[in-house]
Amino acid sequence: MGSIVPLDLSAYHLVCLAACETAVTGDQTITDEYVGLVSAFLKAQVGCVVSTLWRVESAASAILVVQFYRELQQGQSPPLALKAAQTFLRTATRADLVQWLDWAIPKLPRSLSLILEETKRGLATMMETEQPYSHPYYWAAFTLSGL
Question: Which of 17, 56, 76, 113 has the CB geometry, 3.0–4.6 Å to 71, for a possible disulfide?
């Protein structure tokens, strides 16, 4: 974090930290440096930062982040794109997800495709109308800071 703060990142409008607990600051006491990754990027003048409040499940995170960037490409602002991606993940049925995965998997890097192919196989055992990611655990960890 100390290496991020002095940088001038004002040319970057968005940083997406889709790993576990990236929005959580360390457990230092109040007398210690109390800067988390999000604060460091904002101090370095990044426009906004997407981060997570708790450990996130890999496949759900991948789907949410890919959908977030898809929403951005369609002209949504970062807050609306994040909300739309969260709503998609929260409300998507098994059938919706299979269709989405069929679209996404060929477009993604191999390492991400492998995770999502495994997820697609797991969806095969569910009912068409089941919403596997409706629980807030899967989508509510993502937050947007800045702007």
Answer: 76
For residue 104, what are the domain limits? 14-146
Q: What are phi and psi of 52, to 5 degrees?
A: -125, 150
DSSP class of 74: T
Number of Cβ atoms within 10 Å of the Cβ of 62: 19
- Please report whether residue 2 resides in a domain: no
Asked if residue 82 is part of any domain, the answer here is yes
Q: Is residue 36 part of a domain?
A: yes
Instruction: List per-block mean pLDDT (blocks of 10 residues) for the chain, which spans 147 residues.
Output: 84 85 50 64 93 90 96 97 98 97 96 94 94 96 91
- The tally of domains found in the chain comes to 1
Q: What pTM value is reported for the model?
A: 0.85
Note the residue count of the chain: 147
